[in-house]
Amino acid sequence: MKKLTLVALLCCALVAAGTAAAALSPSQYRKQANAICLDMHQKLNRLAAPKTTKAKDVVPYFEHGFAITGAAIQKVRRLSPPASLAAGHKKVVSLILQQDTLLHRLLAQIKGGADVQKALGAADATLTKLSNSETATWRKLGAAECAKNS
Asked: Beta-strand (E) ranges in the chain?
């Protein structure tokens, strides 16, 4: 299994739509988003890759990854993008949520007995397309750390 791909996809799970009382400035938004992403990336990078592609190894990897990204989601939900970045933020959130949904479905399939390699292979093209779009959107938003895949 490609650790980088899974880490990138788990990173995608970090943002959910959220609003705060007052919009941040563009620089504040980028600084706070990047800090959240950096913390998440560091934690995901410390996550040991599965020893095999068997469900007994892959399921805990996914679950630990979701725990890390879930914490980041809560932080990002409190961010409020400035008007100038709101459309990009909305787009990135949509892409992230689509990936998160697919990853949770993938995990459910694996837990249900699906062959890990076949399940990953079937999801790979869609997840890669969404991840690439998300990365490009983060770049447009100017959140360089969030645009990183690991």
From this structure: none
In a domain, 134, yes or no: yes
Are 32 and 89 in contact by the 8 Å Cβ rule? The answer is no
What would you measure as the largest C-alpha separation in the chain, in angstroms?
47
Q: So what's the pLDDT on residue 5?
A: 54
Q: Supply the pTM of this predicted model.
A: 0.82
Give per-residue pLDDT as tens, 38-70. Answer: 999 999 999 999 999 999 999 999 999 999 987
Structural domain including 67 reads: 25-141
DSSP state of 23: P
Q: Is 106 exposed, middle or buried (0-12, 13-18, 19+ CB in 10 A)?
A: buried
C-beta of residue 15 within 8 angstroms of C-beta of residue 76: yes
Asked whether residue 20 is assigned to any structural domain, the reply reads no
Domains contained in the chain, number: 1
Instruction: Answer whether residue 12 is part of any domain.
Output: no
Contact 32, 24 (CB under 8 A): yes
Average pLDDT score over the chain? 86
Please give the backbone phi and psi of residue 98, each rounded to the nearest 5 degrees, phi first: -60, -45
Confidence of residue 6 (pLDDT cuts 50, 70, 90): low
Contacts of 60 (CB under 8 A, 6+ apart): 50
